[in-house]
Amino acid sequence: MSKVFPRIGRRRALQGAAAGVVTLGLLLWWLLPLGEAPPSGSITFSTGTTRGVYQEYGSLLRDELAKDMPNLEVTLRTSNGSQENVARVANGEADFTIAAADAVQAYEAQHPKASARLRGVARLYDDYVQLVVARDSKVRSLADLKGLTVATGLPGSGVRLIAERVLKAAGVDPAADITAVSEGIDTGPQKLQRGDIDAFFWSGGVPTGGLRDLAGSFEFRFVPIDATLVAKMHDADRSTGYYRATNMPESAYPTIQNGETVPTIAVSNLLMTRTDLDPRLTEWLTRTVIKSRDDIGSRVHSAQLVDLRTAIYTDPLRLHDGARRYYRSVKP
Predict the structure, then answer these.
(1) CA of 279: how far to CAs of 51, 194, 283, 319, 324, in Å?
(2) With contact defined as beta carbons under 8 Å apart, do 162 and 267 qualify?
(3) Mean pLDDT of all residues in the chain?
(4) What is the pLDDT of residues 15-31, one digit of tens each?
(5) What is the mean pLDDT of residues 299-303?
(6) Are 83 and 156 in contact (CB under 8 A)?
(7) Alpha-carbon distance values, 315 to 13, 201, 242, 268 (Å)
(8) Which one of 199, 272, 286, 304 has the fewest CB atoms closer than 10 angstroms to its CB?
(9) How many CB atoms lie within 10 A of CB 245?
């Protein structure tokens, strides 16, 4: 027996070692494309306002990129939002950014030559339009905003774009029927709490830090946005095709919603870049975005919705060659 069992043990040991090599190889394939050294250099990532999801996501993504590409320097630049972000990437002020699909399409319509260089990296998550008022406010619908002071977002933001469109669809002229003020998620909640404004619009992933913090110190509620307004926006302007009627989940702000969903409008967010960005760098960055979903999502809830199956749908942008290379490498 002493001559038999050692032989079987060696065989099992060899099989175990082979399995370990295969597992390690698969792990390296997932983390290190083709076993290549990580890209290096520097990039600029345009984010958003300081209390918004774009900024929070961008900061966490930078940390994840540092793990996978330690010699890549990532500079974050705050911005007013989607419209400014698209312009920055198009004109070379930033290399990567996040922007809502409607803002991308609006830029393409106004700047067809400049937008020809824009490319998609991944579809991330949806923004929800959130119209916020004090809990004791008399505002029950968008029509009730007439004559009031309303924050419609910062210039160059996606909030401004969608707020003006939805107001017009509801029969409210943002230039004549309300006193529109430029406030974002970084200042709007405090203005509402002090009574300086009657309502403010926000469009972002849920929950958004600025509103989550407000819920801890101020009683507010969301004004429902009727689903019929989406059809009206589509009829008025075909470029609004990226909006869809939906409900903000009851889990977004539990202490505010009390178990109820809120009818509203959603639009998808896109991670984007330009054609001249190195395909290998973009491939690595795309891999990190997908791989880090759970880590980032544990702190930015909306990031949990990043999904390999839907990430490739970056319409109206075509995929960057590097992003396409990554998606093909992991295709079942």
Answers:
(1) 32, 49, 6, 11, 9
(2) yes
(3) 90
(4) 554 455 444 444 444 44
(5) 87
(6) yes
(7) 51, 25, 9, 10
(8) 304
(9) 15
The answer to whether the beta carbons of residues 146 and 178 sit under 8 Å apart is yes
Q: What is the pTM of this model?
A: 0.86
Q: Which residues pair with 128 in a beta bridge?
A: 204, 266
Strand partners, 37: none
- Residue reference for tokens 């095709």: 241
CB of 54 closer than 8 Å to CB of 47? yes
DSSP-assigned beta bridge partners for residue 98:
271
At 158-176, the pLDDT tens digits run: 999 999 999 999 999 999 9
What are 89-103's pLDDT values in tens digits? 999 999 999 999 999
In whole angstroms, give the CA distance from residue 52 to residue 80: 10
H helices of 49-197, where?
53-68, 82-91, 101-110, 112-115, 158-169, 188-194
What number of other Cβ atoms are within 10 A of residue 182's Cβ? 16
Q: Which helix (H) or strand (E) holds 123?
A: strand 118-134
Q: How many residues does the chain have?
A: 332
Q: How far apart are CA 59 and CA 318, in angstroms?
A: 26
Residue type, 183: E
User: How far is the C-alpha of 108 from the C-alpha of 216, rounded, in Å?
Assistant: 40
